[in-house]
Amino acid sequence: MAPRARKTYNLGTMSFQGKIEASCPSCEEAFETPVWSFVHGEGDPALREQIKARECNLLLCPRCGAAFMPETAWVYYEPGAEILAFVFPESWSGDEARWREKMEADVAQMREALGARLPVDLEPEVYFGQEGLGALLESEDWRVDERDVMAHYAKELGLQVFKASPRWARASGAPAELPYQGRGQPTREALIAGLKALVAANDRLTAWSDFLAKLEKDRGAGVPPAAAAR
Ligand SMILES: [Zn+2]
Questions:
Q1: Taking the alpha carbons of 172, 212, 79, 119 in that order, is the dihedral positive or negative?
Q2: N or C: which end of the chain has fewer CB within 10 A?
Q3: CB 87 within 8 A of CB 133
């Protein structure tokens, strides 16, 4: 039997557009236009900025000049931050179950195409409208700024930095990068020692002092899951 032909789309870091027939909500003009169907946030920083401005795929009617969001779904992918998101039009939110089902089918197809490059446990998030995704990207940027300050202190103090899973960090309200003392893989004790040294050096790094308090209180908590190797 011949080996099954496999579609080899190399997603790499590319974003893709598709053509749709858009209809202006103001004057009802119908026109064909390209829209983004897949946005790679690392490959296309300008598109990532557009999402933060809530303007990705915003169309202008060629007849009356009205600005509007087309009735089209798109995917956002940012592997470094472990974000895979489906963005459906806001007006589709009444039919959430149906679109979630469609999303599951699309993800299965993407897994087949991407194989190991799409982490198996990466659960996609669903948004209706891009407000939620825009807010998520903003808070990720804020975290990166704070992380840079932390990294500076960690280096000064001779601490190692453990990279935890960004998704775990978002879900736990914890920083994704954690200083620890010693060499090799961190232990719970090494993390506590590293966090103590960090917050003693800079008491404004509250994300880390909060996490330290949580870690010390919860004796069952161990070392968080690591970020996927890339
Ligand atoms: Zn119009």
A1: negative
A2: N
A3: yes
What are the φ and ψ backbone dihedral angles of 14, each rounded to 5 degrees?
-90, 150
Q: How far away, in angstroms, is 69 Cα from ligand 1 center?
A: 12
**pLDDT 10s digit of each residue in the chain, 230 long?**
444 434 334 457 889 999 999 999 999 999 999 999 999 999 999 999 999 999 999 999 999 999 999 999 999 999 889 999 999 999 999 999 999 898 888 888 877 877 766 666 777 899 999 999 999 999 999 888 899 999 999 999 999 999 999 999 999 999 999 999 998 899 999 999 999 999 999 989 999 999 999 999 998 888 999 997 65
CA of 62 to the centre of ligand 1 (A): 7
Exposed / middle / buried, residue 163 (Cβ in 10 Å: 0-12, 13-18, 19+): middle
Ligand 1 center from residue 18 Cα (angstroms)? 21
Residue 81 has φ and ψ, to the nearest 5°, of -95, 5
Q: Where are the domains of the chain?
A: 16-129, 143-217
For residue 120, give the 3-state DSSP assignment: coil
How many angstroms is it from 61 CA to the middle of ligand 1? Answer: 5
| pTM of the entire predicted model | 0.82
Q: Ligand 1 center to residue 70 CA distance, Å? A: 12
